[in-house]
Structures are given as structure tokens and as C-alpha cells.
Amino acid sequence: MNPITATWNWLAYQSSRFATVSFLITSVGGISSGFILSLYSESGWFIVVGLFVAVVTAIPSAGTVYWERKNEEAEDVGAARERVMDEAIPPLLDKARLLSTTPRMQRQQALDLAAETVTNNLYSAFRSVTGIRAVVYKVSDDGTQMVPIARAGRSQLPQPFVKGTRRGDYAFESLKMAEYFAFIDDIEEAPHTWGGSGKGYSTYISAPIRGKDVGYGMLTLDAPKVGDLDSRDGSTVSLLAATLSLFFHEAQRTSRNIK
Fold first, then answer.
1. Residues 6+ away with beta carbon under 8 Å from 235
2. Same structural domain for residues 131 and 236?
3. Phi and psi for 126 in degrees, rounded to 5?
4. How many Å apart are CA 241 and CA 220, to the nearest integer?
5. pLDDT tens sequence across 55-101
């Protein structure tokens, strides 16, 4: 993170944390500024001293406003995550439960609809994040690539993950990872095992869509700015991916002899 940005965040946090003290500093600073300006109105030093006091006075107030706004935005996103969990997942589970007796074509249609529902719900939950994008990828029938079947958010078209390329091989490897999701806070500092394109985004979450012995695809969420996402968002994405795996299982039950 930029040192200036980090310093500003720290000052803002401290001024918000000690709001009462910040208010007192602001008040005393304002009075002092007026006193100094009136006392030394004919001296050149009053400009320097007055500006210094004004800056010191302004930091706590501006910092408090900045940090409170940042906390409000975080609370909004947190509440949106909870809405996704409460409102999106139960209906999907109800629909998945009924698929075992549904004809194959309707199971495939149900998968397509569920993928659209998940990406739209993720976009709705994170719509306050400019440039957010959610994508569902599906392993092709010949197993050579993962292709996008649903997306919501940023208009940039997602590209398939093709086996035999660095990006594609890492994506397929991620279907076997022990963790439930991968979170890349800053792609500039991503580990060598990450092979995303990095086009249009700087932070990224992916969760494998898989069964016990088979990988069906991947659910991803990315955003343009570092800090737009955090590890808590990974839990939301991974749970939605697990929900989607039920639809993938039913849709491919006949085509891949999955029982």
C-alpha cells in the first residue's frame, strides 16, 4: 500500500477511535487559529503558524468523517453478504432437491438458471464496489477448458481457461486444492501458483465447484481495486460454489455417468 495512503488510514482510524478527543482538538485548534491570526495580524509568521494549526485541526475532523464513511461502507457490504446467504441459498437448495426426478434437459436448464442467479446475487451484494464482476465457469465436455456460462457486473468478457496454458493449468489445479477458496488480495503480489490474466481487476476470489471426485467448474469474483474484497467474502463465494455443485452434479449425471 502507498505509504501516504497507509498514514492517512492510520490517522483517520485514530481520530475516529478517539472521537471525543478529536472534537476537543478541533475546537481548541479553531480558537487558537483565531487568536493567533488576530494577535499577529501584522507579522509574516502568522501565516505559517495559522496554516500549521489549521492543518493539525483539520486532520482529526476529516479523518473521523473518512473512517466513519469507510466503516459504513464495510457494514453495507457485510449486510449484503448476509442477504445473499439468507435470501439466495435456501431457494437454490429447494430447487436442487427436486432435480433428482427431473428430465435431463430440464436439469441442464436448471443449472443455467442457477448460475445466472448466483452471479446476479453476488453482483447485487457487491454493487457498491465499482467494477465488480462475478463469473461461473464450467468444464467443457471434452475436459480441455473451462468456459464462462454466466456472468454479472463489469462488462469485460471473461476468457476461458484452456488446458496446456499456464493460466488454464493453474485453474484446473485449483479444482483439487484443499482450501474452499483462493483469495488474492493484490495480484501484483500473487504467488507463483496463481495464473489469472489480471485484466481489469486487481483483487480476486475463486472457489472450485466440485463433487467428491470430480471438478465441475469455478465461481470467481474480482474487482479493480486492492481492498475491494477481503477473505470474508471468500466464505460467501465458496458456499455459493458448493450450492452450484448440486446443480452441476444433476445436470451432468447422465452425460458423465455420474450416479
1. 180, 181
2. yes
3. -115, 25
4. 9
5. 555 555 555 555 555 555 555 666 666 766 677 888 899 999 888 88
**CA-CA distance, 14 to 35, in Å (whole number)?**
27
Q: How many residues does the chain have?
A: 259
**Which domain covers residue 153, as residue numbers?**
98-251
Indicate the pLDDT class of residue 188, thresholds 50, 70 and 90. Answer: confident
Q: Which long-range contacts (CB under 8 A, 24 or more apart) does 159-167 make?
A: 159/197, 161/137, 161/218, 166/195, 167/195, 167/196, 167/197
Strand order of the β-sheet with 161-162 is 161-162, 145-153, 133-139, 215-223, 203-210, 182-184
Residue 141's SS3 state is: coil
pTM to 2 decimals? 0.69
Indicate if 193 and 232 belong to the same structural domain.
yes
Does one domain contain both 164 and 47? no
Residue 185 lies in a domain: yes
